[in-house]
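User: Sequence in, structure out. Go.
Assistant: Echoing your sequence, followed by the structure tokens.
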Amino acid sequence: MKKVAIITGAVGGIGYATVEKFDKEGYAIVAMDIVPTEAGNEKLANIKDCVYVSGNLALGEDRANLVKTALDKYGRIDVLVNVAGVAPRVRNDILEMTEESYDFVMGINTKGTLFLTQLVANEMIKQEKVDGAKGYIVNVSSCSAYTSSTSRGEYCISKAGATMITKLFADRLASEGITVNEICPGIIATGMTEKVKEKYDNLIAGGLVPLGRWGLPEDCANAIYALSSGALGYTTGQSIIVDGGMHIQRL
């Protein structure tokens, strides 16, 4: 029986790399992103068994439609990967941050992740175990969950919230045979970081990242898959930091 993965943010860098990884591993995929249906289907045209759902993770009706689509098409959900996330539209000093920007970022990164996870978890609980587990949930948080960036405070706060969501659901769902973990990417080459590429190029050249390079979306996808495959089945509530060693404390 083919396993089924819901992957949000599926058209973006980490999301699309994750879709490709799960496709390669033989999963059926229900992919969600905010881009229109035609554009989403075009991006995912090479994925073998994939249904694309256009929607806004911040909206309850769109989250419900995503889960309904997965269950109507495949009858179960084995993996949820919460990739979808946004940065503030404008970087402002935290002394100038607006409520509008805060609500926009939190609505997707934190509220959307929380309530989609809740929806999926309640469906996973009803399922029979496959290969010893009812399901796996992986959140994409960020090194910004524990690293201050005062020009995008709403993003840092949202990702700190996502990390607590991981811990809360890991605690609640452990007895149900469902593990919940997260990855915390560092400097990854995606559309989100493209606008500040020169800044990060200089920081990496100056030694900020011990491995000496940008992270790739595939680096994140491989970590996500490891947490979803059963290979780390005795691990829950944990963060895998995918940052090239950037947060090693060094003298």
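User: And one key feature?
Assistant: The chain has a mean pLDDT of 97.
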